[in-house]
Design brief:
It contains five helices and ten strands; from the N terminus they run αββββββββααααββ. By secondary structure, it is α+β, with helices and mostly antiparallel strands. Helix 2 packs across helix 5. The relative contact order is 0.12.
Amino acid sequence: MPEGDTIHRAAVRLGQAMAGRTLVRSDFRVPRLATADLAGERIDEVVSVGKHLLMRGEHWTIHSHAGMDGLWHVLAPGQRAPVAAHTIRAVLATDAHEIVGSSLPVLELLPRERDGEAVAHLGPDLLSPEWSEADAAEAVRRLRATGVPVGVALLDQTAVAGLGNVYRGELCFLRGLHPVTPVEQVELEPLVALARRLMVANRDRVERTFTGDARRGRRTWVYGRGGQPCLRCGTRIRDAQLGMEDGMLRQVQWCPRCQPEPQRAEPLPA
């Protein structure tokens, strides 16, 4: 699933193509929007909030969430989108570009004055340009209130917005935290500060890195490296599944030496 930095880059790219331009055609291919027509709507800005994207017009906002596979494509007029036609959910045309959204599990139109409702449930956005000490404190408060293992809490978008599997694994490694460590045992202030620094550092990179090394296979400490030697100590990286609040199991990786398992923690299923 795209994480906050990826959605931020998408917002920048879409904003460059759309902001200040008027839609000459819209084609929504989801039942609830089948009759919607935004021709004549000027797009003022495109912004990201956590993993959500908001295309804000004069009167309407197009809200989307990419889920696991969603993408927005910026094309020249008449250019074919590099996706199967049946996955296309929206086509938005200006005089200069066609913007095609594919495989979007969330796509809705909201009155511009009410578009904040779409993201009101989210915790502080790590890439907010207005990020402040108050936001950091609120993220810490919300994370602590989850009462779940840190590896689950970091993916709770209502606690802090923008983090996904990659950041969760890398943050736990860099802070020496086993993913099943109870959140109440974690120093959350430096964890949130590190999450913000990493997200900002990676937001303008095509290939994010957590190690400072941009070479393939060297960009992450543990994510995607199950069974491989730890880049720090050489111990074999473990790979298991961690239960989430939504009942789903998601893969998580960790180094058993650099991230020792806390006492009385529930073991992870292999």
